[in-house]
Amino acid sequence: MNAELPDISLSDAAPAHSPLAWVGMQGIDLPVTVREPDYNRDLHARVDTQVDLPRPETKGIHMSRLYRLLDMLSEGNGLSPARLKVLLDRMIDSHADCGSGNARLRLAFDLLVRRPALLTEGLSGWTSYPVQIDASAIHGAYRCRVKLRITYSSTCPCSAALSRQVVEQGFLKAFAGQTDVTPDAVAAWLRDNASAATPHSQRSEAQVSVDSDPGADSFGLLALIDRIEAALQTPVQTAVKRPDEQAFAVLNGRNLMFVEDAARRIESALDSHLFPSVHVRHFESLHPHDAVAWAQPGIGSHSQGF
Asked: Keywords in UniProt for this one (predicted)?
């Protein structure tokens, strides 16, 4: 039992001598803690982690070293860019014998947030916000980027205008030739006919990426989500009663949005120094395809790819 165990990653040479850009693991299950103002919760994350392997003769890295280092994220301290930087530095140091100088990791988890109903006091439910955090230390440069996915409702402005025209024409036809129309008569007609045509709405999705301050002690996820939802004005709801559903319909009516409008709203709400990237997608109820838009300040129409 005391015999030294072989380690062929050190004793054997690689059969084909070539450096590798990244080597590591994907899909590691890990509990993490997100601690922010008014939020403190342990969540289930999946982590990908890798280092480079620049020495062509080295057979392999030490997977177990990376795995054990990741455990520092499960110790109950809140996730932060500063803590991830420390982890990346330790990953590189742990592979000095492999010549590694770069490291990266990705965390993915769902941020669960209790959201109140729009009007009904004491009524609330849980909303899930998928989060992805990409952190890297490459050639001594550290970068940490957060990606959020937020679901909201969008009502088509064109469809709303067409629907209003149908109601207008119906009203003019119903009261043609009448010079004395009472408010009660108008109200009764609207109650029966205002839905003669309705604009189409759809569940929609915004994917937003921003850079994080490398020295920050928090990612500010909740504040970022609240800023985006405040810009859109129509976040999806959880538990509702009829007054809440009516209030949601009012929000949609006051915030008619093409996909272009949604992208611009979000872009204008974000700080440019965070290098935001915005991708919005409206899951059309009129068409079998989706409407999409991207906003990337400073890139504009010259950006390529999907």
From this structure: Hydrolase
